[in-house]
Amino acid sequence: MSTDFQTFCISRRFGVRQATLWQAWTDPETKRRWFAWEEEDGDWRTEDYRIDFRTGGTESARQVG
């Protein structure tokens, strides 16, 4: 028996205004600070982070350590 999922949905409630959350997900610099972090006392760092929030756009991050 196998299961083939084509789509899925994850829901979560945040204790902030919708506009604040939208800003965090759509502004490249804000999202970089959120997801493409660098360790303060470690060896990992984000060397490249790009986001194209248009329909069909892409998001990529390259971390090195």
Task: List the main descriptive attributes of the protein structure presented here.
alpha+beta, extended
Describe the model:
With 65 residues, the chain is an alpha+beta fold. 26% of the residues lie in helices and 20% in strands. The protein has helices at residues 18-26, 28-35; strands spanning 45-51, 59-64. Strands 1-2 form a two-stranded antiparallel ribbon. Helix 1 crosses helix 2 (28-35). The longest helix has 9 residues, at 18-26. The chain is extended and about 45 Å long.
Summarize the structure.
This protein is α+β, with helices and mostly antiparallel strands. Helix content is 26%, strand content 20%. It has two helices and two strands.
Fold blueprint:
Elements: H1 18-26, H2 28-35, E1 45-51, E2 59-64
Antiparallel strand pairs: 1-2
Helix pairs in contact: 1-2
Whole-number mean pLDDT? 81
The ordered H/E elements are HHEE
Largest pleated sheet: 2 strands, antiparallel
Task: Report the principal-axis shape.
Answer: extended
Oligomer: single chain
Structural class computed from helices and strand pairing: alpha+beta
Number of strands: 2
User: Which blocks of ≥5 consecutive residues have pLDDT under 50?
Assistant: none
Fraction of residues in helices? 25-40%
